[in-house]
Design brief:
The chain is of the alpha/beta class. It folds into two domains: 399 residues, Methylmalonyl-CoA mutase (TIM Barrel), CATH 3.20.20.240; 144 residues, Rossmann fold. 45% of the residues lie in helices and 11% in strands. The protein has 23 helices and 20 strands. The strands form six sheets. It has an eight-stranded parallel β-sheet. It is globular and about 90 Å long. The N and C termini lie far apart (58 Å).
């Protein structure tokens, strides 16, 4: 809310400037005594206030290293080399300029992923791809050191000058530890290996970045925005310490680091999170005595927001997330195809994911403004609040100790991170199960007659548990690259586990899973379970609650048809209602009507339906009539804010008994 007249708009001087006091007086008049805080002020998972109105404001700016378009990235995660090669070419011809190689075993592969046991296979998988004309990224994964060396070997085999290529090598053993629960060696040894690989790659001319700080494991375990930022900073500092301990200058260690953040469906918080990430990384660099350089940030749309039911809604989720990441200043972006939660996406789903970005770039021109949110009071306030909260979370992680470990590694080893995320996960689950966090197409407005969408017909890749018995720890990475070029297998470059570090792995959840399990259970029945909506009075009297009840029951896969009702001369024909119940084959009946209808006819209808063999529920809060309705046979009430998942579990049991 800008109270100052703009010199560019002199005609505004003819009108009185609005004041916050005048606005608040108008709001209070509309609220009619209702609590302002409860009605118009929301809070994020971190407790940050979301005000209904903000004044124009300015804040610290942290720009990208290169202004202009963000890079459109597509994941390459098909395990069959010919199919992967065809998909890569289609993505690049269709507008992508970045390929993210997602190896089998990576958490991001979701059970699929590229399979390449030697450089020749990787070469065929990227056949026809001109590596000097695109950007390449490696997703963090187990055996990340070998993945990086294999990619370097491919570059040398093809004769490219490494300095002419843009490659992010994706080393992130801390992220892999968080998501999968183990490191193959003690942390000092892991740090030594990372430093050795980086030195070898830099010596051969590669520019990096070499380390990717991946916050997806934390986000998928229900991290809030501040928790995600705190984890990113604490992980970055852990790598800075490890590389500095191996003799790498701090400035070079900083330059080796890039970030992958999650773009979620909350536009305001996602924009603020990306802006805050840049500011916080600058602050860390200043604290290290460095002159700040812009962070390199890749964005990926949120896995946890995807749904298996009515997956077309994922197109909207992906669009909001992509918009938010673009406005927030991501350097590159991956939009997960809308069928990702169902299996390996086909060419159509991948094309739609690419085009989501291309439309935002080419038609909406989002890239033409360096920081579109600058000066907007809401975004500036949220950015500053996230900077404060993220820094506080970072400091909390830095204070952790576990044996010889400190900071992020100690926080993972002693369970501090897991406990914090578990609390956040419980709160998020409560929001979903009560539908205070609505999931369109799943918990709200479900379609129990939805048609199936297509995914690629391919089985997930089995996990390899075998490890080499010998150790190649002392082998020079340059020698490994040469042997890989000469045809050596991946296994020859692996290092046998030694005093492995194990922790409790972070779980990966999608918000929709509780409702999807209910729908799957209902769909598995020989016939779909049915709930009879026992409507009272005229259509205008029961439509709202009948719609609420149908929406609720269908979220659990139960059919809940309703018609024109049983109104007769201003009342309800209870005989016709009971007869319709008997003919429906249902075992559960839910009364739907107005408060007046419940007071006048609710008890009588409940008694008759109970006598007819129904278990009777009622849509709405019972109020003062609860005792009388219970006595008449109403055994449960459904209402806004109830635990919908628990309610649907009981409804399924009753309807299927």
């Amino acid at each position: 809310m800008n109270t100052a007249a703009s010199s560019d708009l002199p005609y505004l001087d003819a009108f009185p400037g609005p004041s916050r006091e005048a606005w608040r007086a108008a709001v209070d008049k509309v609220l009619k005594g209702a609590d302002f805080e409860k009605k118009l002020v929301a809070r994020t998972a971190d407790g940050i206030r979301i005000e209904p109105l903000y004044n124009a404001a300015s804040g610290a700016r942290a720009f990208r290293s290169e202004a202009g378009r963000w890079h459109v990235a597509a994941r390459l995660d098909h395990p069959q080399e010919q199919a992967a090669q065809a998909l890569a070419i289609a993505d690049l011809e269709g507008g992508a300029d970045t390929l993210t190689l997602t190896p089998a075993g990576a958490s991001a592969a979701r059970g699929y992923g590229l399979v390449a046991d030697d450089v020749a296979t990787l070469d065929r998988t990227l056949g026809g791809v001109m590596l000097d004309l695109i950007r390449l990224r490696l997703d963090p994964a187990p055996q990340g050191r070998v993945n990086a060396l294999m990619l370097a070997a491919l570059i040398e085999k093809r004769g490219h000058a490494p300095a002419d290529l843009s490659i992010e090598f994706g080393l992130d053993p801390i992220g892999v530890l968080a998501g999968q629960g183990s490191l193959a060696a003690p942390w000092p040894e892991v740090g030594r290996r990372i430093a050795t690989v980086i030195a070898a790659l830099k010596q051969r001319g590669f520019l990096g970045p070499f380390i990717t700080i991946d916050t997806r494991p934390y986000h998928e375990a229900s991290a809030s925005e501040a928790q995600e930022l705190g984890a990113a900073l604490a992980t970055a500092v852990a790598y800075l310490r490890a590389l500095e301990a191996q003799g790498l200058p701090l400035a070079e260690a900083r330059d080796a680091i890039a970030f992958t953040l999650v773009a979620d469906t909350d536009e305001f918080m996602t924009v603020a999170k990306f802006r805050a990430a840049r500011l916080l990384w600058s602050r860390v660099q200043e604290a290290c005595g460095l002159s700040p350089k812009p962070a390199t940030i890749h964005a990926e749309t949120a896995w946890r927001s995807l749904t298996r039911r009515d997956p077309w809604v994922n197109l909207l989720r992906g669009t909001v997330a992509a918009f938010s990441a673009g406005v927030g200043g991501a350097d590159s972006l991956t939009v997960l195809p809308f069928t990702t939660a169902l299996g390996l996406p086909d060419a159509f789903a991948r094309r739609v994911a690419r085009n989501t970005q291309l439309i935002l770039l080419e038609e909406s021109n989002l890239w033409r403004v360096a920081d579109p949110a600058a000066g907007a009071g809401g975004f500036e306030a949220l950015t500053q609040a996230l900077c404060e909260q993220g820094w506080s979370r970072f400091q909390d992680l830095e204070h952790q100790r576990a044996g010889d470990l400190q900071g992020m590694l100690a926080a993972l080893a002693n369970g501090h991170v897991q406990q914090g995320l578990a609390r956040e996960r419980d709160a998020a689950a409560k929001g979903v199960t009560t539908r205070r966090t609505p999931l369109t197409g799943t918990s709200e407005y479900p379609n129990i007659r939805e048609s199936a969408v297509s995914v690629l017909d391919i089985a997930p890749v089995g996990k390899t548990t075998s490890r080499p018995s010998g150790s190649t720890a002392e082998r020079n990475p340059g020698e490994i690259i040469k042997s890989l070029i000469d045809g050596a297998q991946r296994a020859e470059a692996l290092i046998a586990p030694h005093q492995a570090l194990a922790i409790e792995a972070l779980p990966s959840h999608r918000l929709a899973e509780p409702f999807e399990a209910l729908r799957d259970r209902a769909d598995a029945q020989p016939t779909r379970p049915v709930v009879f909506l026992a409507t009272l009075g005229e259509i205008a009297d029961f439509t709202a609650r009948a719609g609420f009840a149908r929406n609720l029951f269908e979220a659990g896969g139960l059919a809940a048809p309703s018609g024109d009702g049983f109104a007769q001369r201003g009342a309800t024909d209870l005989d016709a209602l009971v007869g319709a119940f008997r003919g429906s084959g249902a075992k559960l009946a839910c009364l739907c009507g107005s408060d007046a209808a419940y007071a006048e006819e609710g008890a009588a209808a409940a008694e008759l339906l109970t006598e007819a063999g129904a278990t009777v529920w009622l849509a709405g809060r019972p109020g003062d009539s609860e005792a009388a309705l219970n006595k008449a046979g109403v055994s449960s009430f459904i209402f806004t804010g109830c635990d919908v998942v628990e309610t649907l579990e009981r409804a399924q049991a009753l309807a299927s008994a």
